[in-house]
Amino acid sequence: MTRFKVIGALVALLVIVIVGFSVLITVGKGAGQVLFGKTFAEGELKDYVSSVQKTQVQGSSCQAFDSDGNGYVSCDYTVANDPGKPYSLECAAWGLDGFLNKGCKTRLPFGNTR
Q1: What is the pLDDT of residues 56-92, one digit of tens each?
Q2: What is the maximum alpha-carbon separation in the chain?
Q3: Pick the residue with more confidence: 31 or 74?
Q4: What are the domain boundaries of the chain?
Q5: Residue 65 and residue 76: Cα distance in Å, rounded?
Q6: Cβ distance 59 to 78 under 8 Å?
Q7: Sheet holding 57-62: strands in order across?
Q8: pTM
């Protein structure tokens, strides 16, 4: 009987640890995106534009929070050699998805010519 009590206690402890860890990750992701999301995404944007498009970002604005949960946030930017024309990309967001997703990808082609 004591063996089953020990196993039951270990299972209960494991469930508590898993639930607690899940809550911490969820809260940490939201707080991390609010605090670091914009800076992280803009860094990914600058790296992507300089390596793929071979130009420099002149101005940029990225969302801080991944609202649709796909691991990317929307970024609008202008480049040094064409400062009057805005472009759009989705760049990796802060959080577990953002560390798995790297760089940027094009958004739906609504006015995006690059």
Answers
A1: 999 999 988 888 888 889 999 999 888 889 999 999 8
A2: 76
A3: 74
A4: 2-106
A5: 15
A6: yes
A7: 57-62, 72-79, 82-92, 104-106
A8: 0.65
